[in-house]
Design goal:
The complex is a heterodimer of chains A (484) and B (443).
Chain A: H1 2-11, E1 53-56, E2 62-67, E3 73-80, H2 93-100, H3 110-119, E4 123-128, E5 133-140, H4 145-157, H5 164-178, H6 182-195, H7 209-213, H8 217-227, E6 233-239, H9 243-254, E7 277-282, E8 288-297, H10 305-317, H11 322-330, E9 334-343, E10 348-357, H12 361-377, H13 382-394, H14 403-416, H15 426-431, H16 435-442, E11 451-456, E12 459-462, E13 465-468, H17 469-474, E14 480-482
Parallel strand pairs in A: 2-6, 7-11, 7-14
Antiparallel strand pairs in A: 1-2, 3-5, 3-6, 4-5, 8-10, 8-11, 9-10, 12-13
Chain B: H1 2-10, E1 21-24, E2 30-35, E3 41-48, H2 62-69, H3 81-88, E4 93-98, E5 103-110, H4 114-126, H5 134-153, H6 158-168, H7 183-187, H8 191-201, E6 207-213, H9 217-228, E7 251-257, E8 263-270, H10 278-289, H11 295-303, E9 307-315, E10 321-329, H12 335-351, H13 356-375, H14 383-394, H15 400-408, H16 412-419, E11 428-434, H17 435-439
Parallel strand pairs in B: 2-6, 7-11
Antiparallel strand pairs in B: 1-2, 3-5, 3-6, 4-5, 8-10, 8-11, 9-10
Classes of the chains: A alpha+beta (484), B alpha+beta (443).
Amino acid sequence: VIAVLLSAALAAPSKKSPPEPPPEPAPVVDPEAWRSSIPGPATESTWQPPVPETFQLSNGIPVVLIERHELPLVSVRLMMRAGRETAPDQPGLPTLTADLLDEGTRERDGARFAEAAGALGANLQSGQGGEYGWVLLDALAGEPLLPSLDLMVEMLREPSFAEFDRVRQAEIDQLAAASAVPGWHAERIASSELFGKDHPYGVLPSGTAESLSSLKKGHVKKFYKSWWQPANFALVVAGDVSRADLQEALETRLGDWKAKPGKAAEVAPPTPPASTRIVFRDHPGAVQSAIRVVSPGPSRTSDGYMPTLLAATIFGGMFSSPLNMNLREQHGWAYGAYAYLAEAKDYGRFTASAAVQADKTAPSVQEILRELEKSSGAPPSAEMLSLAQDNTRKSVAGEFETNASTTAAFSTLVRYGLPLDTWRNWSQIVTGTGLDKVGQASSALDPKRQIVVVVGPRTVQGEDGQVDVVKELEALGYPVTVVP
Amino acid sequence: MILGLATLVAHATPAPELPFEKYTLPNGLEVILSPDPRVPLVATDLWYHVGAGNEVPGRSGFAHLFEHVMFQGSRNVEEDAYFRYLEGVGAPMVNGTTDFDRTNYFETVPSNQLELALWLESDRMGFLLDTLTQERLDGQIAVVRKERQQSTEDVPYGMADEELYKLLFPAPHPYHGNVIGSHEDLAAATLDDVREFFRIWYAPNNATLVVCGDIDVEKTKQLVEKYFGSIPSAEEPPALVVTTQPITAERRADLTDEVELPRVNFAWITSPVLTPGDADLQLAAIVLAQGKGSRLYSSLVRDQQIAQAVTASQYSLTQGSVFQVQVTGKPGVTVKALEAAAWAELEKFVSNPPSQAELAGANRRWQAGMLRGLESIGGFDGKADMLNFYNQHKGDPGYLDEDFAAHDAVTPETVKKYLSQLRADNRVVVTVTPATVATGGAR
């Protein structure tokens, strides 16, 4: 710009001598100008993620321990390594079994059991995820720890299942309550469309009202006996307890329990859809529509995991990812939109998820597919990759802030048979995954091979009159199926 | 059993050590530094002592809308860059929240990126208005209205929760309604309103900065001085004059909503935050409804099987806390039957208050909850927030040990005294009947 002005000034014929320029004002120095430069990092801490100690009980139960003595708390996570594939014809059975563990034992009924835990300040929970069941104890360290462990072992070894009828009914009623939520239906339909409704993972872990109604107490007892036994257990402990004390406490409580191997079934991974299709469920009266865009991804143990994790993170794992920037900041149709790669042993699942203003449902689906097109069509920029890498790499310290998050981080490794120094090497694993690999993985986010699930009102008042959401979805050019 | 519990009481967990240093910059900014080197992270937590409780009628949702604007960039931080910077350095936690009594902004970053966090926070404290435009404001109004849909309107029972606060605190009380505000007021917010709000409330002399985690105290002091020292203070913000009218006759709303299960809420205005009675009612709420051994769970869920879920809470606030009991019924149970059964249990609870053993268990649970909060240096209800909370309400970030003592001092007699605040003639009741039941048809 200066050059142009100068040449213009030179070209202009000088008619008369210019007037005396006014005295230059004293230059204003902005005392805050220094703030325009972004501060760089100080020296990186030499801290490294912990590598835990390990030992085995005499019946073979592996134990992973991370000692931390700053606060008088202990977190104990027991995993039961069998999933829903063990009861393919009885959806909800593994979950109901896990949920009944703390509802009464041979020693005491459910109310007394809960009172005993409450008096110790202990939190005891049990549950069943897709691939594994779990019992979680958050206890005060010191004197309350051993009686808290006693309760945990009591529910593991001596559940009475006495409250089977009540708890089963409560779960059926809970399903009824959940059916008021569009996002719950979206998850349910996404699972069923991805795996097929006859696959053990084609139904949510909670099962269905129908499947739960057909279950008898005998089924639960049999399932418990087959799967909730030491051959399937692994323990991860973090907190204020020494290895010697823990080993003795666990050995005396669990070591004499005989292990008898069970056989878990193989889980068939889902097949990618041949072409993109939209599945719609009417939810009259909802203000927002729930959208899930899903497709199969690599399993946690495969080589494709890290590149796809980074590709999904770039696309929608961060606030500043294009998915959220588009729907939230650019269009204002959603409060937030995110994408992630769900991890599992035998499969993976890519999901983009958003709740959007109902009259903008079809435009939102279109924008999500558009962003997928952009992201899969070309490798990410080096800048976006490094943003995602830094985010994935450096946020790992946050996993070790609390005992509960620490046991969660290590139980992931135990579950998938990954080396226990994975977190210590995490930074290298992430930065070692370069643009070529992530570029290849990005092409798997193909907008032409996704299942799009939409749950929201079929008709809704928009700015310019009534909107027929199904019609607008059809106009996007993909087949639309309406499901109950 | 009782003997065993008595032993437990004798060995009550002492309040953990909470080292900190508090000082005030010449411009009025309070600074609290608390070293905690367990992981290589540092949390900054900046509390502005303004919340929805400082709003005037017609401006509902303003404090929260403003919180959104704070993430939109300032003189040296371009639009949408806030999260990008922090995500790039691997910040595991970045957020802001608005409550009735305060607004907070927090980020947890790797400890070698503390300066970045201070740079970002100070730029929006000192230089927000330079870059605030109508367009940015409109964008955030749209986002917040979306948030309202997602968190209030499209959530089962969301409207009932809002109604409850309208009945508890009639207008012009600033707790009236919901922190997020009404669509009408949000849509009416102008750029001038936002500027005015910033000038009055977002000055260093109305804020407290906590830096907690893997820090060197002396170096951190220098950095805080560098980034915040030159931000000018403002006039003292106006003192809040609020009269919370006691409720003298039952207030109620019977709503119908797109839900599957009936629900009954009871609520009362109770002892304000950290005043006598607050600890008693916190423990009472635990005895009443926390866990499967609690009074309401045992009677309504397990024995009578009329309810699906129960909760009770003492939400501690400056202008009057809210003690709320919520009972969600089984399908097919009428709201009337549910309310009668729940009220009968509450009357029993008030006339037969918690025993020493029940209180000892509840206190352990409360203590364990506080300790678990302290495991996180930042984030929601982490250590930094705890220091700020006690500082705002008691002027002492280290008030935790006194709060432990207040909970240890609760006895069946003191609980009984404060439970007398929960009566039929001063209660607020909000019921929700499922729409399918109301219209008599299946969906």
